């Protein structure tokens, strides 16, 4: 049985793209074939539960406490989501500073994180809904 942390969320179009790529890989592309097979094996496809939990596969809105501005984005693998041309929202990785700070939080939770420029930023999770 697979551990949930081994799962990689992706859209159905991303999974289809990976499967099509695998079918076209040649023998000299063994390393990529292994990588693609592993991604397919670990794939978690479809909508997440609408429970307000921030996790990959959710469209998240955060409010920056310093000025009240908001940012809405899909939390997921930027590399994988690029394979789905239908994704028309910014994508933040769960390993980015903001993504790591809010993953596992719920709507209404506040958190402080260090931005890439070294600034300490405080945000509040305003919304977390399944990406569809």
UniProtKB/TrEMBL annotation:
Transmembrane annotation, as ranges: none
One GO-annotated biological process of the protein: regulation of DNA-templated transcription elongation
Organism: uncultured Microbacterium sp
Highest taxon, organism lineage: Bacteria
Alphabetical list of Gene3D superfamilies matching this protein: Transcription elongation factor, GreA/GreB, C-terminal domain
Record InterPro entries: GreA/GreB_C_sf, Tscrpt_elong_fac_GreA/B_C
Protein name as catalogued: Transcription elongation factor GreA
Gene Ontology terms, MF aspect: DNA binding; translation elongation factor activity
Residues covered by the Transcription elongation factor GreA/GreB C-terminal domain: 52-127
Swiss-Prot/TrEMBL keywords: Elongation factor, Protein biosynthesis
């Amino acid at each position: 049985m697979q551990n949930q942390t081994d799962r990689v969320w992706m859209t159905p179009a991303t999974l289809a793209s990976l499967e099509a790529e695998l079918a076209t890989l040649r023998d000299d592309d063994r390393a990529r074939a292994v990588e693609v097979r592993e991604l397919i094996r670990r794939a978690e496809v479809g909508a997440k539960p609408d429970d307000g939990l921030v996790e990959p596969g959710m469209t998240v809105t955060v409010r920056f406490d310093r000025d009240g501005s908001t940012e809405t984005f899909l939390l997921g693998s930027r590399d994988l989501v690029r394979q789905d041309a239908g994704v028309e929202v910014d994508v933040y990785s769960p390993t980015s500073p903001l993504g790591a700070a809010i993953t596992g939080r719920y709507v209404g939770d506040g958190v402080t994180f260090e931005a890439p420029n070294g600034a300490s930023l405080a945000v509040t999770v305003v919304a977390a809904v399944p990406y569809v």
